[in-house]
Amino acid sequence: MKYLIRKTILMGLTLTMMLAATSCNKQSDKNAQQEGKEPTASNHLAKEENKTTINKEEKKMNKPVEMTAAMFREKIMDYQTNPNEWKYQGDKPAVIDFYATWCGPCKATAPVLEELAGEYTGQIDFYKVDVDQQEELAALFGVRSIPTLVFIPKEGQPQTAVGAMNKQQLQEAIQATILKH
Fold it and tell me: Which of 14, 26, 69, 107 counts the highest number of beta carbons within 10 A?
């Protein structure tokens, strides 16, 4: 019995150490940047892969557009002029991905959103908002966990979903919230 308990504890500690080694840590990346060092190796590799994997097909594909607060006020809603009323200004429905560069689930969701942006070209606008850079927008939607996806129909109120989704889940959410007939 003691052997089984020791083995279970050892396996739990090993798993915990492995998860800690592979998880994203925003604070350690910021500390490394302040010290003039590279962030974690996984973030560095992800950035390099993003730079080198852009090919001709991807350039043709409609991709989510990085959104600033000024762009949001112009294309989505002017929350300064109408702070208490949702008035969508877009000419077609939209999906906004609230993400962070250090977030693993966000990195998993990004290529799926890029693929869907290509499939829904001309029907739906896709945007992304870095919560570390656009804190005002994250606060506007009450984003506390990422990824948070906001589905904005042409008419009606936006709806949010929190957490990573696969392609089928995203398509179902788009059909249910944006393209419902």
Answer: 107
The one catalytic residue in 24, 100, 103, 129 is: 103
Interval 136-156: pLDDT, tens: 999 999 999 999 999 999 999
Six-digit token string for 38: 């590279």
Residue 103 appears among annotated catalytic residues: yes
Q: Determine the Cα–Cα distance for residues 65 and 47; give it in Å rounded to an integer.
A: 17
The question of whether 106 is a catalytic residue gets the answer: yes
Active-site residue (options: 106, 117, 137, 164): 106
Per residue in 133-145, is it b (16+ CB within 10 Å) or e — as a string? ebeebbebeebee
Alpha helices, DSSP H only, in 23-103? 26-34, 41-52, 56-60, 69-75
For the entire predicted model, the pTM comes to: 0.66
